[in-house]
Design brief:
The complex is a heterodimer. By secondary structure, chain A is mainly β. Chain A is about 0% helix and about 55% strand. Chain B is mainly β. In chain B, the strands form two sheets. In chain B, strands 2, 4, 5, 6, 9, 10 and 11 form a seven-stranded mixed β-sheet that branches. A four-stranded antiparallel β-sheet of chain B has the order 1-3-8-7, with no helix packed on it. Classes of the chains: A mainly beta, B mainly beta.
Chain lengths: ~110, ~120
């Protein structure tokens, strides 16, 4: 089974500052990688995904993530955050030969302060 | 209207009671999932179904059962609820046709409290 580690359970940051949310996974096989966002009292929605090709993936709301195969990482970044980015962010992995099973990290709560 | 609808959204019940959480989707997806979310643990897969006749256990299926009544409906049952089943439950769907995209589409969640 896959293991997905989000090292930071909470990340406080001031508005307009850059942010990086870290995600590492354990895998000996090829994977697909995802970031989901959960706003308060809502379900999760897809922020971005890496399936193949360019290792730098751009998503909605100005977020991007970079796949690093050698470090088995998929860190999420935004150069300038807004108050509205306050949410919980989940990294997820699925195996290319079994892509219907998703493994989620424990989540990182991003708290953007004015 | 939401593409993936869960009912009820909130439920408080007592230990030993039978509870059913229902999920319906209008996305036309063949695959449906039930996840449980606990603070600091992320999402854990309870059961998943790839079509009406296919039901599979996930990581934490003990104490739960499911029924796929139709392609669009997937319900989760707790036969005898216990307090440590207090959690936020999510239904999700995905589409196996049109190649691999892997995206899950989530409902808004059902918050269950077992006293």
């Amino acid at each position: 089974a896959q293991s997905v580690t989000q090292l930071d359970s909470q990340v406080p940051v001031f508005e307009e500052a850059p942010v990086e949310l870290r995600c590492n996974y354990s895998s000996s096989v090829s994977v697909y990688l995802f970031w989901y966002v959960q706003y308060p009292n809502q379900g999760l929605q897809l922020l971005l995904k890496y399936l193949s090709g360019s290792t730098l993936v751009k998503g909605i709301n100005g977020f991007e993530a970079e796949f690093n195969k050698s470090q088995t990482s998929f860190h999420l970044r935004k150069p300038s955050v807004h108050i509205s980015d306050t949410a919980e962010y989940f990294c997820a992995v699925s195996e290319k030969n079994n892509f219907n099973k998703f493994y989620f990290g424990s989540g990182t709560k991003l708290n953007v302060k004015p | 209207d939401a593409d993936v609808t869960q009912t009820p959204r909130n439920r408080i019940t007592k230990t030993g009671k039978r509870i059913m959480l229902e999920c319906s989707q209008t996305k036309g997806h063949d695959r449906m999932y039930w996840y449980r979310q606990d603070p600091g643990l992320g999402l854990q897969l309870i059961y998943y179904s790839f079509d009406v006749k296919d039901i599979n256990k996930g990581e934490i299926s003990d104490g739960y059962s499911v029924s796929r009544q139709a392609q669009a409906k997937f319900s989760l049952s707790l036969e005898s609820a216990i307090p440590n089943q207090t959690a936020l439950y999510f239904c999700a769907t995905s589409d196996s046709s049109g190649g691999v995209t892997g995206e899950l589409f989530f409902g808004e969640g059902s918050r269950l409290t077992v006293l």
